[in-house]
Amino acid sequence: MSSQDFALQAVDLHKAFGSHQVLRGVEFSLRPGEIMGIIGENGAGKTTLLRVLSGELKADRGSVVHKGRLGYCPQRIVVNNELTVEQHLRYFQSAYQLATLTRAHELVERLDLSRYLHRKAGVLSGGTKQKLNLVLALMHDPGVVLMDEPYQGFDWDNYLSFWAITRELCDRGQSVLVISHIAHDVKQFDRLHRLREGQVLVEKPTARHATASRKAAL
Ligand SMILES: Nc1ncnc2c1ncn2[C@@H]1O[C@H](COP(=O)(O)OP(=O)(O)OP(=O)(O)O)[C@@H](O)[C@H]1O
User: Fold this and answer.
1) Ligand 1: which of 22, 23, 182 to mutate, judged by most atoms within 8 Å of the beta carbon?
2) What structural domains and CATH numbers belong to the chain?
3) Which residues contact 91 (CB under 8 A, 6 or more apart)?
4) pTM over 0.95, yes/no
5) N or C, which end of the chain is more exposed by having fewer CB within 10 Å?
């Protein structure tokens, strides 16, 4: 891959909390239009890595470069319990400087969130709040999307909707990085990496990756 051919690149990332060295030289590139999964044991540093990639947390060393706008769906849901779903959309419309809420409402529809538009976030169930968290990360059509277990609390139909939406993003050339705990996800990824001992290592090729390689070989 040439140095130009990436949507996001992490170079030599280090992060410690006190004497606990969590990231020890993380390096990888996310290609345009690919879905990459990152797995790892509890406490391996996956959330820390995503927080560093998103800019929420400052690395002690190393750099992150990305092209285009970033979308970030954090593990900890950040919504204001006093605002309705629609008010969140309007607030983020202003923050993202969007002319319309067309894409946001399309995502709301796809994730079966429409009936909650005028409810305050504070009274929503965990899974419904997570849908709002996801819509807020995607409504500005970011070029690179970082998601930390983005379907927590989703029922099966919404889990499938999540993956359908994600695949559409990639078909349009957007790039997605997903922190995952679900073995079932593995077949959705173009590439899979494991975070271990503070470094990102290549995991065996996934079913989707194998299919793409076969197509490329034909
Ligand atoms: N703000 C913080 N201050 C101190 N230690 C932290 C902080 N954030 C994370 N850690 C520690 O860093 C390590 C990695 O945490 P992190 O949440 O990144 O792991 P994870 O791989 O996402 O875990 P899980 O799979 O359980 O979500 C853990 O030992 C955690 O206790």
Assistant:
1) 22
2) 1-68+174-218 (3.40.50.300)
3) 83
4) no
5) C
